[in-house]
């Protein structure tokens, strides 16, 4: 469904991604694991066209979308949950959801009701300004906003970072539910426990290059590689 072929991405003169290749098949949850600053977010932004790769290609559902503008990538069915949990602080939770609603003509489209059924804690916050939410509530809202665009593919950048264990467990369950509903997910994670629990396959990135790729069973069994490249 998504394939990156040897992409090189820069911030100005800084060369950040060095020939990153990966693929995600329809229906999979694939994790990119790596330490702080390894390049996980830059991979996500390269797919979204926020930091277009200067070399290599991004193929989505057979189309070359390398360097396509972010709103057009979104229109193709890619939802993005960035790691900064950006919401419109002055709008209510309900308004944040309503203004994100798109592509509602398919079967069982996401709307406010479905979003509240999916994240029940958000329902009672319908009228609350989003700037007053807790970190966990904000993360639910950020994910729900991405879902309101009815994506087929979701880029999730460190969704559980800095959240309390109970919220992390709830989000993990919901990510699995999204997969069961037919969504394909590329997940960036520093937290290997979450990645090992949810994913079908994993990539390890270090210093902007892929160092390892395997099934989650292989990754789980390979303690040496995890110790070398990940936080333990
Ligand atoms: N806007 C920017 N301008 C310049 N350099 C940047 C910018 N954003 C990120 N970088 C650098 O790019 C490298 C990769 O960052 P990236 O955010 O992709 O890492 P990450 O693996 O997602 O880590 P984190 O968990 O901290 O988000 C880092 O060295 C970072 O300092």
Automatic annotation (TrEMBL):
GO biological process, any: L-amino acid transport
SMART domains: AAA
UniProt-listed Gene3D superfamilies: P-loop containing nucleotide triphosphate hydrolases
Pfam families reported in the protein's UniProt record: ABC_tran
Name this polypeptide is given: Amino acid/amide ABC transporter ATP-binding protein 2, HAAT family
Native organism taxonomy: Bacteria, Pseudomonadati, Thermodesulfobacteriota, Desulfomonilia, Desulfomonilales
Record keywords: Amino-acid transport, ATP-binding, Nucleotide-binding, Transport
Family, as annotated: Belongs to the ABC transporter superfamily.
Record-annotated ABC transporter domain positions: 2-232
GO molecular function: ATP binding; ATP hydrolysis activity; branched-chain amino acid transmembrane transporter activity
InterPro entries: AAA+_ATPase, ABC_transporter-like_ATP-bd, ABC_transporter-like_CS, BCAA_Transport_ATP-bd_LivF, P-loop_NTPase
Listed CDD domains: ABC_TM1139_LivF_branched
């Amino acid at each position: 469904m998504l394939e990156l072929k040897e992409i090189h991405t820069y911030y100005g003169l800084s060369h950040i991604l060095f020939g990153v290749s990966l693929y995600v098949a329809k229906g999979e949850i694939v994790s990119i694991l790596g330490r702080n600053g390894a390049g996980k977010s830059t991979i996500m932004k390269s797919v979204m066209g926020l930091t277009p790769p200067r070399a290599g290609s991004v193929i989505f559902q057979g189309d070359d979308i390398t360097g396509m503008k972010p709103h057009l990538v979104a229109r193709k069915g890619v939802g993005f949950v960035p790691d900064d949990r950006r919401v419109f602080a002055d709008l209510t939770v309900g308004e944040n959801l309503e203004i994100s609603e798109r592509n509602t003509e398919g079967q069982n489209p996401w709307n406010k009701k479905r979003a509240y059924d999916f994240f029940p804690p958000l329902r009672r916050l319908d009228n609350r300004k989003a700037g007053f939410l807790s970190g966990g509530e904000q993360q639910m809202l950020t994910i729900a906003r991405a879902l309101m665009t009815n994506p087929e593919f979701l880029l999730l950048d460190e969704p559980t970072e800095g959240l309390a264990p109970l919220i992390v467990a709830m989000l993990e369950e919901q990510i699995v539910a999204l997969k069961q509903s037919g969504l394909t997910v590329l997940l960036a994670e520093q937290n290997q426990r979450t990645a090992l629990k949810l994913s079908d396959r994993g990539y390890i990135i270090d210093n902007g290059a892929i160092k390892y790729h395997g099934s989650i069973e292989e990754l789980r069994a390979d303690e040496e590689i995890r110790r070398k490249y990940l936080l333990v």
